[in-house]
């Protein structure tokens, strides 16, 4: 039996891994009611590219990956269509995706001229600031924040999720997944606080925007948004760190690390303390991962 000292050293060693691992945000997974319609919407309105599409008839679903660059370097959106299901509940917990663009006014006009997306907030500076933003809604009801920003290697720049305890969420993503707190902003006049978490600066990569609304500790998550997938150099060490942190902060491992049936792809999946699902996949095996 390990002594208290040994156990402490072991835990300390486990938590060193997320600090060393070369993790990166891979893709967000969510469900849509008409896959071809959504592909058309994202390519025509947002200028995304269809990276790949696959049909899995034995499991009765089709999915498509869209983004602004190759999956081995860029973040992607994984859209899933389940045969015969044309509508999902987005819930109140999921917030939005964000797209960085050099001219939000022009992008908004492109969206307005389409027949699939709509502008729900006209482009203009944020209240009390100078950053130009707009909001658009896709046919399934998913919201996209459009952020005016200079050239960036990653236009798909944010995934926003609402959490019930912001400090707990920050600690989880720092300790379990090695993310950095890039910035934190409290907006008392509108009764919310946000924290940007990621593996590089906001203008260089995709980040998680965690939002805490004063006094709200739990959200209905619906059944539309599924998870964020993160690449790792070692899925076993990463799962060990996540499992250790869940014992302290909440959440749980949903799938123990290991290869998928019939494939060499190794993954693990988990819930964070707010019940948001995430998965970890070995970096060089990401493109064959069935999430």
UniProtKB/TrEMBL annotation:
Enzyme class: lyase
Cofactor remark from the record: Binds 1 zinc ion per subunit. In the homodimer, two zinc ions are bound between subunits.
Gene Ontology biological-process entries: methylglyoxal catabolic process to D-lactate via S-lactoyl-glutathione
Keywords: Lyase, Metal-binding, Repeat, Zinc
Enzyme Commission numbers on file: 4.4.1.5
Annotated Pfam families: Glyoxalase (PF00903)
Single annotated GO MF: lactoylglutathione lyase activity
Matching SUPFAM superfamilies: Glyoxalase/Bleomycin resistance protein/Dihydroxybiphenyl dioxygenase (SSF54593)
GO cellular component terms, A-Z: cytoplasm
Pathway membership, UniProt: Secondary metabolite metabolism; methylglyoxal degradation; (R)-lactate from methylglyoxal: step 1/2
PROSITE patterns for this protein: GLYOXALASE_I_1, VOC
VOC domain ranges (all copies): 24-149, 155-283
Residues annotated for Zn(2+) binding in this entry: 78, 96, 145
Name listed for the protein in its UniProt record: lactoylglutathione lyase
């Amino acid at each position: 039996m390990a002594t208290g000292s040994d156990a402490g050293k072991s835990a300390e060693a486990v938590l060193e891994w997320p600090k060393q691992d070369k993790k990166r945000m891979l893709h967000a997974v969510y469900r849509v009611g008409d896959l071809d319609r959504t592909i058309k919407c994202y390519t025509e309105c947002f200028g995304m590219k269809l990276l790949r599409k696959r049909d899995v008839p034995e499991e009765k679903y089709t999915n498509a990956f869209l983004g602004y660059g190759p999956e081995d370097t860029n973040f992607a959106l994984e859209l899933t269509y389940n045969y015969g299901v044309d509508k999902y509940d987005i819930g109140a917990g999921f917030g939005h995706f964000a797209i960085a663009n050099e001219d939000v006014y022009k992008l908004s006009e492109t969206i307005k001229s389409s027949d699939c997306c709509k502008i729900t907030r006209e482009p203009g500076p944020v209240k009390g600031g100078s950053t130009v933003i707009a909001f658009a809604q896709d046919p399934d009801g998913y919201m996209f924040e459009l952020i005016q920003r200079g050239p960036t290697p990653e236009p798909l720049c944010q995934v926003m999720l609402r959490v019930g305890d912001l400090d707990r969420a920050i600690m989880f993503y720092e300790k379990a997944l090695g993310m950095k707190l890039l910035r934190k902003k409290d907006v008392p006049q509108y009764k919310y606080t946000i924290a940007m978490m990621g593996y590089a600066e906001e203008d260089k990569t995709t980040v998680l925007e965690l939002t805490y609304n004063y006094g709200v500790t739990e959200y209905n998550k619906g059944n539309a948004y599924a998870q964020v997938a993160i690449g790792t150099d070692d899925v076993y060490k990463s799962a060990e760190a996540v499992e250790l942190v869940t014992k302290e902060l909440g959440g749980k491992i949903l799938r123990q690390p290991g290869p998928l049936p019939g494939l060499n792809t190794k993954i693990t999946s988990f819930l964070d303390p707010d019940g948001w699902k995430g998965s970890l996949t070995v970096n060089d095996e990401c493109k064959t991962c069935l999430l």
